Amino acid sequence: MIKGELEMDTIGIIGIVLAFILLTFLIMKGLNIFLTVFITTLVVAVTTQMPIYEAYKTNFMGGFSGFFQNYFLLFLTGTLLAKAMDVTGAAKSIAMTIIKFMGKDLAFISVPIACGVLAYGGVTAHVCAFCVFSIALQVFKAADIPRRCIPGALCFGCSTFAMISPGAVQIHNAVPSNNLGTPYTAGFVNGWISCIFMLVVGLIWLKAYIKKVKDRGEHFAAIDGDDVSDNDDQKLPHPLVAILPLVVTIILVNLKNSDGAAIVPVEVAVFAGTVSAIVVMFKHVKKGILSKTFTDGIQMCLSAVTATSAVVGFGAVVSHSKQFSIITNAMINIPGPKLLSLLIGTTVIAGICGSASGGLGIAVPILGPVYTSLGIQASAVHRVMALSSSALDSLPHNGYIVTVTNGLCRETHKASYGLTFRLTVIVPFIGSLLGVLLFTLFPNLP
């Protein structure tokens, strides 16, 4: 009996691993995300001896619908804010101001920081990249930096230090906050030290990489369709006005009552930022474009949230298998500081899902209560999970990485992913390790 159970568990664990490998392979091949998760869900159900109908009807749809219900409004309001920042010219104004302040020769600094400012204010990573890409083309051309470095610079700014930092109006704070009852600013001091470390190390590495490729004789080379012409006549809002919607959102989402509970729901705060952007900068909106812009935004939101929900649904099937508890117990019992095992568990799940938000959607409800029950402060659990979600999530099958690299920048993984891997996988992982060290040594800091 014991031998039979051991064999079943072994087959199940192997099946889960194979399903994750297949998930990565099929996504890399460009197969539709929904068809991909349906196939990999079947692999998990069969190898773990889970009833197939129950796997799809109960577990998959339970994970899918639960994530959709909890986070659709946040995806929607975040996308609308991003569209408002785009259509009013606010995003471009912020980006250009930072770039002008830094100088074109410091493009490797200005592009990630421009993305980071937008990301911290609640603009989704996809839209941050689209907003800053045209500016990145200009400054990389002026500084004669190889074009293939643009995806790494964009992804670093949009999906690492700013996205996961304390107070950021992003789903990576929303998921732990909703599950653990913590504020978005949880783990404030240690979290900011870790994120600033990521920023500094990433910029140093980016600079060294650019110098290395330029020393080899590489130069900027535009490709068909690149708009590298200057448009000095374009009227943009003043940068102080442009940043106002982000300030409104950040302030509202972090307002607390005497009990520490949020006064304004995050979705309302983000929507308030959207309204303020349109009201204050309405004169910069081209006539007749507003309706189409928001319609496109809603469609973009539905695509993003359903794709993420599908990945969470697949993860829910895995998490309901008996073998998954064996895997999580192995992670929890890794020797060393408990927060280290939390880091490994979270980043592995995010990497498996190919999504930081999707990984957190699975990991936080499962691992969060386990670690708080061990006596670890919820604020530390919140921040460590947010930090570690941004490392292995950026493997080649990540939807955002594929979109920015192949779709937006029209570069290949072969040419550009080496830099992206350094900046969005290695740097955040090291920063997460720093976070674990800080929370272990100084657990009582705000």
From TrEMBL:
<dbReference type="GO" id="GO:0005886">
    <property type="term" value="C:plasma membrane"/>
</dbReference>
<feature type="transmembrane region" description="Helical">
    <location>
        <begin position="294"/>
        <end position="319"/>
    </location>
</feature>
<keyword id="KW-1133">Transmembrane helix</keyword>
<feature type="transmembrane region" description="Helical">
    <location>
        <begin position="7"/>
        <end position="27"/>
    </location>
</feature>
<feature type="transmembrane region" description="Helical">
    <location>
        <begin position="149"/>
        <end position="169"/>
    </location>
</feature>
<feature type="transmembrane region" description="Helical">
    <location>
        <begin position="106"/>
        <end position="137"/>
    </location>
</feature>
<feature type="transmembrane region" description="Helical">
    <location>
        <begin position="189"/>
        <end position="206"/>
    </location>
</feature>
<protein>
    <submittedName>
        <fullName>Putative ATP synthase F0, A subunit</fullName>
    </submittedName>
</protein>
<keyword id="KW-0812">Transmembrane</keyword>
<dbReference type="GO" id="GO:0015128">
    <property type="term" value="F:gluconate transmembrane transporter activity"/>
</dbReference>
<feature type="transmembrane region" description="Helical">
    <location>
        <begin position="60"/>
        <end position="82"/>
    </location>
</feature>
<dbReference type="Pfam" id="PF02447">
    <property type="entry name" value="GntP_permease"/>
</dbReference>
<feature type="transmembrane region" description="Helical">
    <location>
        <begin position="261"/>
        <end position="282"/>
    </location>
</feature>
<keyword id="KW-0472">Membrane</keyword>
<dbReference type="InterPro" id="IPR003474">
    <property type="entry name" value="Glcn_transporter"/>
</dbReference>
<feature type="transmembrane region" description="Helical">
    <location>
        <begin position="33"/>
        <end position="53"/>
    </location>
</feature>
<feature type="transmembrane region" description="Helical">
    <location>
        <begin position="339"/>
        <end position="367"/>
    </location>
</feature>
<feature type="transmembrane region" description="Helical">
    <location>
        <begin position="419"/>
        <end position="442"/>
    </location>
</feature>
<feature type="transmembrane region" description="Helical">
    <location>
        <begin position="236"/>
        <end position="255"/>
    </location>
</feature>
